[in-house]
Amino acid sequence: MIDGVDNYWVWIALGLALAVLEILVPGVYLIWLAAAALITGGLSYLFGFGWPLEIISFVSLALIAVYSARRYLSYQPIISSDPLLNQKGGRMVGEIALVVQPIESGSGRVKVGDSEWIARGPDTAVGQRVRISGNDGTILLVEPIALIADKGTAGGEAPV
């Protein structure tokens, strides 16, 4: 007992605080600690054991809950309606960018909208337009638009 407060109230308060934090900072990890704290509070209420056993109970329940949740979510992943939601580079594939720093030796900078990005691709001069073909983290993979137009003609000749 802590200054007139039963141990189980401390665990229940901790569990509720962790649950509220999970709502405020979503990430699907604090809820399992909240569940462990609430169950520990329930066990403490029913059996009245002391702090050392309550802490062991909390740690054990937290490990079991986190392991079980990870295992369940690996077999039943959460499917998003927009899988590229937090992948800005992936969302830009297919867009046109302006070269603002020449792409030399495979690296340069391009401007997309109001942002500049590091780009990798064939050597391209400043002012040329390139198409974003992919990304490697925050580095955009680009190819000149002229190369895209030439792919449909034999020997790189301009269409008649």
Care to describe what's here?
With 160 residues, this protein is α+β, with helices and mostly antiparallel strands. It has 5 helices and 5 strands, in the order ααααβββββα. It folds into 2 domains: 69 residues, no CATH class; 67 residues, Nucleic acid-binding proteins (OB fold (Dihydrolipoamide Acetyltransferase, E2P)), CATH 2.40.50. It has a 5-stranded mixed barrel. The longest helix is centred in the middle third of the chain and has 25 residues. It is rod-shaped, with a radius of gyration of 28 Å. 18% of the residues are buried. The model has no long low-confidence stretch (mean pLDDT 85).
Which strand-content bin applies to the residues?
15-25%
Any idea what the radius of gyration is? 28 Å
SSE sequence, one letter per element? HHHHEEEEEH
What spatial form do the alpha-carbon principal axes imply?
Answer: rod-shaped
Specify the structural class.
Answer: alpha+beta
Give the fraction of residues assigned to helices. 40-55%
Number of strands: 5
Largest sheet: 5 strands, mixed, barrel
Kindly report the spatial arrangement of strands forming the biggest sheet: 1-2-3-5-4
Whole-Å distance between the termini? 90 Å
> What's the domain count?
2
